[in-house]
Amino acid sequence: MRATELYAPTLRESPAEAELISHKLMFRAGFIRKAAGGIYSYLPLGWRTMKKIMQIIREEMDAKGGQEIMMPITQPAEMWKESGRWAVYGDEMMRLKDRHGREFALGPTHEEMITTLIRDEVRSYKQLPLMLYQIQNKYRDEIRPRFGLMRSREFVMKDLYSFDKDVEGMNISYQKMYDAYSRIFERCGLKFRAVEADNGAIGGGHSHEFTVLAPSGESSIAYCEKCNFAASDEKAELKIIQTAPEELKPLEKVQTPACHTIEKVKNFLKVPIEKTIKAVAFMDDAERLILAFVRGDHEVNEIKVINSVEGANHLYMAGDKLIEKAGTVAGFMSPIGISNAIIVVDQSVMLMTNAVAGANEIDAHFINVTPKRDFDAEKIIISDIRMVQEGDPCPHCGEKLKMTRGIEVGQVFTLGKKYSEALHATFLDEDGTTKPFEMGCYGIGVGRTMAAAIEQNNDADGIIWNRAIAPFEVVVVPVNAKDDKQLAFAEEIYNELQKSGVDVLLDDRKERAGVKFKDCDLIGYPLRVTISPKTLESGKIEVKVRRSGEFLNFERENCVKSILELLETL
Q: pTM score, two decimals?
């Protein structure tokens, strides 16, 4: 490819709405252009990188026995209603009606579609195991699309679905995909962690997120350096925090004027924050009041609360009227004496003694609260509902956990029978009995992977690509393309590299050298081969390594061989 034929409109300034470095650099380097909020066109350079990521994915999926298919983006509402997710999925689902009034969705995911397809085709255990995947657009109506390709409304995703006859087979398929994902992100040159994660609206059993480590990441990850445990903050299961034994004191109500926050309560009563009990009031889709209680120095994990309360799919902050209807008041809530609410208490709270909690009336708190004695165990849900924080003990080995941030680029799930039972997808087993499939689901955000690679690999001059996913591996730049000798020399090198299988670009634009060099660094080609007047005189060819900034000089007769060897190290 010649640069004079390449559509690569680079910019010197970033768009005003761009916040993350990947968003800024993809605009400036001519990889994407915005069509609407959260909807983008991929320009040639961006699509070349996307295709390289997709090719890596295809190779690793195929190597594990995956077979590529293509399913419709437009999905009938009937199958979503049959699975029970049409109402549950919420406003993120883009819905439409055809001219006959029939309801459809633009696929945010394809569990229903693939299960219905297999239900009508696969009849016997002899056809299992089966792993089918596709790479196509997905649609989710994000309430606030932002960060470029990180949180968009239309995006490219690879999703694979596995079908097995039993749990053992499903776990084998899961491990195959776990290994394949590790290989994919390694080949893309990314630093990542596979962390235990929540399944969310997908449902099912256990799950791992593949998270690229980056300070700009939306995901917060807890990890242990001793035993390699890692989990998202939504999922991290925590050990119960033991408290030192002390003599129990009688429950007592005290006045706490204007003390409607934990900070004010602890200062007024002169107690440590870890001796206070914090309340957070939620409302679910059914308008049920859910009161969550954690220690004052902890935060409530909404995902864990959802998972603890049967029938809760989404949580919203409860209003004062709903709180008052339950016989309590915001800022002064506790489980003592409450009946018209779902009460969820963190397991560590239950081990507290002589603590402070709201008295369910304005300007009053209880002191000397001992939850095992004072809470009605039959009316509350006791669960791990707190958010992990740095220094918490590792649930596996007890070592102190550390926290980091990351970008979720892929996730693997075991679904079990969730969809096969709901959609009546069954097969005949060896003994002639009818059984539902054991399923797994495995997704990779292709655009997110590209953006995450940029977040992890950039400097003040632009993008730094790993060779495997760079739009071009090498760019050959004649300093002065108007000089016929320089251009002819550059074309010789370009042609030889092409014949050697290198994905190479010839920058034959008649621009100033400084402009071309800036574009090379901005776009992030791994190697830049420069042909200058000095090259014509000495026969030595200058090569710049984008990642290190190192300059190397190769003899003409060995330059292609040397470039090939250098590429192997990148």
A: 0.86
